[in-house]
Specification:
This protein has 292 residues and is of the alpha+beta class. The protein has eight helices and eight strands.
């Protein structure tokens, strides 16, 4: 065991000596290495501020991704300076680069999910399709956007729950932004009895909908005869309201109440499915009248 440890220790020492050779280092070499690293730090500081300003002016990226990109560029400049300074300190650059590349590959593979989330966060914030205060529907959930970070999107649902959704899920799954516009349209179907005067019914339904609370006058209410069903003539009522989900629920409730009241006042029958069952005049009669 002792012999094996000695052999391994000697092998490690030989490998280190192949990478690092300090026998020929002079004071000038140390000075040049120091100046190179110092120059890299200075250049990094000098380019970060104008780069941040340029990105903010020329792109739609928010402050978070811009700061992240400028930091990456700054540390990249310092890393290049360190690589150029290493030969002056007797360090062989090639093995060091190989080790750095291997470490980078390991970090990328092991942290793939984190990297993907950060990348998706940059895309979401750069495109600016939604932001804090918007209401979105994604991943089977609907809520108000509280925060869009570099890793997750945080939502507050209508029942007060806080949801944290990874950026990759928001980016890859279908998403609906409910508040892209200040208004949006909803619809209700009203089935009236056969024999109803269609023109009169359309006017009554349109007036009642326009007077309902939460319904916008512009765009105007529209009413269509949509279908002759089995038990009713169906009218499709379109109306506009504020785009958030709470306003949509309130407007639909107000319109339904207004339409019900208008139908009662104007003696319009709201139909419902009906079936007539004929049981025969007596137990011995098994067929309906008029049939053999």
């Amino acid at each position: 065991m002792v012999i094996m440890q000695v052999i391994l220790g000697q092998a490690v020492t030989d490998n280190i000596e192949e990478i690092v050779d300090v026998s020929a280092i002079t004071a000038w070499d140390v000075l040049w290495a120091f100046l190179l690293i110092l120059g890299g730090v200075i250049v990094s500081r000098l380019i970060r501020r104008p780069l941040r300003h340029r990105l903010a002016k020329r792109t739609s990226l928010p402050e978070g991704p811009i700061n992240l990109l400028t930091k990456i560029v700054g540390w990249g400049v310092i890393s290049v300076a360190v690589v150029f300074a290493l030969p002056y300190l007797g360090v062989s650059v090639t093995p060091v680069l190989v080790l750095v590349l291997l470490a980078g590959v390991v970090l990328v593979v092991s942290g793939r999910g984190i990297v993907e989330n950060y990348g998706a966060g940059v895309v979401l914030q750069a495109e600016g399709q939604f932001g804090p205060g918007d209401q979105i529907a994604t991943n089977g959930q609907i809520g108000n956007v509280i925060r869009v970070s570099s890793r997750v999107v945080m939502l507050e649902t209508l029942d007060g729950r806080h949801l944290v959704i990874p950026n990759t899920s928001v980016l890859t799954d279908p998403m609906e932004v409910l508040t892209t516009r200040p208004e949006r349209r909803s619809e209700l179907v009203v089935g009236l009895a056969y024999g109803t005067d269609l023109e009169s019914a359309r006017a009554i339904l349109a007036d009642a909908t326009a007077d309902a609370s939460g319904v916008m006058l512009e765009p105007a209410v529209e009413v269509f005869v949509s279908e002759f069903g089995e038990s009713s003539i169906d009218f499709l009522v379109w109306f506009w309201h504020r785009s958030d989900l709470q306003s949509a629920y309130e407007a639909k409730d107000a319109v339904a109440r207004a339409l019900d009241q208008a139908c009662k006042e104007n003696r319009l029958t709201i139909s419902f499915p009906q079936r007539t069952l004929w049981l025969g005049n007596n137990q011995d009669q098994q067929t309906p009248p008029g049939q053999p």
